[in-house]
Amino acid sequence: MNHAVLTEHLADYLEGDLALDKRALVDAHLDSCEICAQEVREMQQTIRLLRALPQPEVPPMIAANVMRRIRAGETRPSLFERAQRIFGGVLEPSFVLPASAVAVAALVFVVIQGGGPLSRSLLAEEGAAAVVVREDEMAGLAAEAELGAQLAAQEVDRTFGASAVEETDEAPRVRDRLETSRESAVAASTPASAPMPIEEPSVERSTGDAEPATALAARDPMAGLPWASPRRRPANSPSRRAEAFFGNGGLAQGFASDVSGPATGFATRSSGDGATAVPVTLSRRTSGDPTLAADAGGEDPRDVWLARALEHPAEFARYIARHNLAEQELWVERLGERAESRGLLGELIEALRSAGDEKASWLADDFAAQASDAASGAAPAEVDESGAESSR
Amino acid sequence: MTYEFVERGTMVRGTNPLAREHSGPRVVVEDRERERVARWQGGDEKAFEELIERHQQRVYRLLYRMMGNREDAEDLTQETFLSLHRHGHRFRSESRFSTFIYRVAANAALNRRRALGRGRSRVEKLKTRNDAGDDLPSAPRDPEDAMLGGELSEHVRVALETLSPALRMPVVLYDIEGLAYGEIAKVLGVAEGTVKSRIHRARQALREELKGLLGSGPAIEGI
Question: Is the separation of the CB atoms in A265 and A201 below 8 Å?
Fold first, then answer.
């Protein structure tokens, strides 16, 4: 056993999760290697310190204050929220993104009469499927609902271009569409222009005509990457947040966590003289964690992302913005490190700034903050030190 | 407290002592919890108040660790329960209520951080906090703190704040709150393996931050 093997097993060793034979190997190594033994001791102390942290006392009156605010009406839903409850996520622009990815620019309103099946289609001539309205309850809300539909359509238009909105489809059964839109989005987002097939064991292929999907894929450089999330809704969209809070469908469905086992594929990287295929080998670890472990062997997956970011900064920023803030920070940290080590950080920030996109500009700020952190070297430790001093 | 059973009885593997401490009648507690939630969803506001009483401690503690100060933690604890009251009709008892409420609290913390501004680096924020002398106790606050050494625990608290939320949240939920990997995965919406690797990375980062203190002095050796 050597240091590398110890590092691999350290987490399990500390938790007592290591199989006995491996544990014996680790113990034997620790007996002979003072450096590793010291590391293990320090990790154990760190864990003990964490677990011995005193718990803060809960301030009194929280329940009373919350109940007072509830009685004052703070949690009463607005008219629009009540509409949303009845429509579900259908009003949200982000809901429409999966559907638009299959180039069916449709906002689906379902008209339920007394809880019955679909009764009428309001927007079919525009390519939308149908609108289901509970007529007895919805009379006063129809105007707001239509406004929601328009906003959603505009969002689709902004995101994918007008061509995607023009595409029509025969009106399928709405319930089927709701259920299949996500998988269809995944299938359609496979770039038809990819020079080599991408091995995606868990993703269905599109077999139909893919013209609009091709157009879409051309605008979405992340589409078709083996570890790309099959979910097309932004991570911070209202519906995703609601799902994260309240739904169960999304529980434990991490970032492409359904990709099982190592996957080998090719990411397209376009350059001045055309697209080239970059071989990428992914383990579950690299595909499941956006921290993009660099030690998986072979090419650092972050390089592919960096190339994408430099070539398509706005799309890249939009992709990153789909994650929640904590995930975004990890992306920035890990990609920033890699960009810095390759001397590309300045170029990356510049590309993002000049993309003319608000999200790209935010991301540029984040990378710049990361750069200043890195430039200040041991700054965090110094600050901690001073903080500690001031507490004495 | 009885509700502790809900979280801590689930530990299957691992040696997290917090997680193994209790392995009591979880099913009974869960049934009572479900019944309480059902009463509230049926319009009984008294049941909601009971839910607050039962869960405020865990919510507040998590938010305190995530926000680093008591004012924000208290404010966000209230916001968490208001949000729960506003949207809780969607909870369908398919996951545990405690997991559900942790999710609401975790997202409240992340949203607040977003509102605080994206451009500020962690170092700047930390510096500001330290300059303001925010919440830095000058003496041990209680017997447990005295045991750890108020100064030492302060170092740990500050070190925790240097972690990004993506690393801090899982390590707080695991090592401080005693949740199992699977529960944390549900709270954060990531895979269990991701939770595990982040906890390890968080501990490594903390070890780096605390390096000057580790292995030195009787206070820490005795822990």
Answer: no
From the first residue on, what is the mean pLDDT of each consecutive set of 10 residues in chain B (223 residues)? 36 47 57 85 89 93 90 92 85 81 89 64 48 40 50 86 89 92 89 90 91 62 46
Contact between residue B85 and residue A70 where contact means Cβ atoms under 8 Å apart: yes
Distance CA A94, CA A155 (A): 8
3-state percent breakdown (helix, strand, coil) of chain B, nearest 5: 70, 0, 30
**Cβ-defined contact of B166 to A56 (cutoff 8 Å):** no
**Alpha-helix residue ranges (DSSP H) falling in chain A:** 3-15, 20-32, 34-51, 62-71, 79-87, 93-101, 135-138, 142-160, 162-166, 174-188, 211-219, 238-246, 284-288, 301-311, 313-321, 325-341, 345-353, 358-375, 379-391
List chain B residues with CB under 8 Å of A326: 110, 164-166, 169
Q: Decide if A246 touches B, using CB distance below 8 A.
A: yes
CA distance A18 to A265: 32
Q: Quick one: tokens of A150?
A: 């328009």
User: Nearest to residue B59, comparing CAs of B4, B116, B98?
Assistant: B98
Length of chain A: 392
Which residues in A lie closer than 8 A to residue B13 (C-beta atoms)? 15, 17
Rounded Cα–Cα distance for residues B153 and A239 (Å): 40
DSSP string, A315-340: HHHHHHHTS-HHHHHHHHHHHHHHHH
Beta-strand pair A274-282/A263-271:
antiparallel
The whole-chain average pLDDT of chain A stands at: 59
> Which residues of chain B make contact with A235, given a CB cutoff of 8 A?
none
Whole-number pLDDT of residue A269: 43
pLDDT of res. A241: 60
Classify the complex by whether its ipTM is higher than 0.90, answering yes or no: no
Rounded to whole angstroms, the Cα distance separating A105 from A91 reads: 14
**Mean pLDDT, rounded, for A276-296:** 42
Residue A205's contacts (CB-CB under 8 Å, 6 or more residues apart) are A187, A190
Residue of A256 and B206 predicted with greater confidence: B206
Lowest mean pLDDT, pick from A74-83, A271-280, A310-319, B202-211? A271-280
The per-residue pLDDT for B11 is 36
- Distance, in Å, from the CA atom of B65 to the CA atom of B78, rounded to the nearest integer, reads 16
Question: How far is the C-alpha of B188 from the C-alpha of B109, rounded, in Å?
Answer: 12
Residue A140 has pLDDT above 70, yes or no: no
Q: Which amino acid is at B46?
A: K
Q: Indicate the residue type of A324.
A: N
Q: A135, exposed or middle or buried, with CB in 10 Å at 0-12, 13-18, 19+?
A: middle
Domains of chain B, CATH where assigned: 4-221 (1.20.140.160)
The chain A residue lying nearest B58, using CA atoms, is A58
Q: Give per-residue pLDDT as tens, A347-391.
A: 898 899 888 887 888 788 888 877 776 665 433 333 333 333 333
Nearest to A228 by CA among A269, A187, A270: A187
